[in-house]
Amino acid sequence: MALTIKHTAVAVATLGILSFILGILAENKKPAAGTPVTGSNVVICKYPSDPTVALGYLATVFLAVTTFAGCASLFYPYKGKSVPRGVLFKNKGFIVFLNIALGTTGLAAAMLLWPTITEQLHHSRNVHHNLETTCPTAKTGVLGGGAFLSLDSCLFWLVALMLADNAREDYFEETDGKVAAVI
């Protein structure tokens, strides 16, 4: 069975939705703060066991896979027929949505990675010499925002795929029409 645009669209949508769900779960599972335990001239922050860091990284991985699938689906030679890239880039709508998809992907990755790495650093660097430390966690809401941008990115990849499909159909109608006129 040959790979079709519908297959790639379903793959891009599914991976993007998984990234969104994992990002939302990471945001919801993040603790509000750690518990400070005072020692001799230090405060050790004890954080509850939570899957925030793992879910944040998984959301980022699924975003990366969504992006790869989205890029690959735009230029894949469906039914063994490839379209010159110049034909796709003549379509202004395609260029606009491709750039928006790339931009939202970058912003989503930044908003998923920043709190995930921050949370991981809070868990690993939990000994503080300031006795006033309140055992902070990563900024609330950023992971959720990254999850929504991940979903937006997925949708923009799908719009770019639809525009690429339209350009592909137009190209093959023109080339098939020229071949038929020559014969």
Provide an overview of this structure.
The chain crosses the membrane at residues 7-26, 54-76, 96-117, 142-164. Belongs to the DESIGUAL family. This protein is mainly α. It has one domain. 70% of the residues lie in helices and 5% in strands. The protein contains 5 helices and 3 strands; from the N terminus they run αββαααβα. It has helices at residues 5-29, 52-75, 85-89, 92-124, 142-182; strands spanning 35-38, 43-46, 127-128. It has a 3-stranded antiparallel beta sheet with strand order 1-2-3, with no helix packed on it. α1 (5-29) runs antiparallel to α2 (52-75), α2 runs antiparallel to α4 and α4 runs antiparallel to α5. The radius of gyration is 23 Å and the shape is rod-shaped.
Task: Give a short summary of the structure.
This protein has five helices and three strands, in the order H-E-E-H-H-H-E-H.
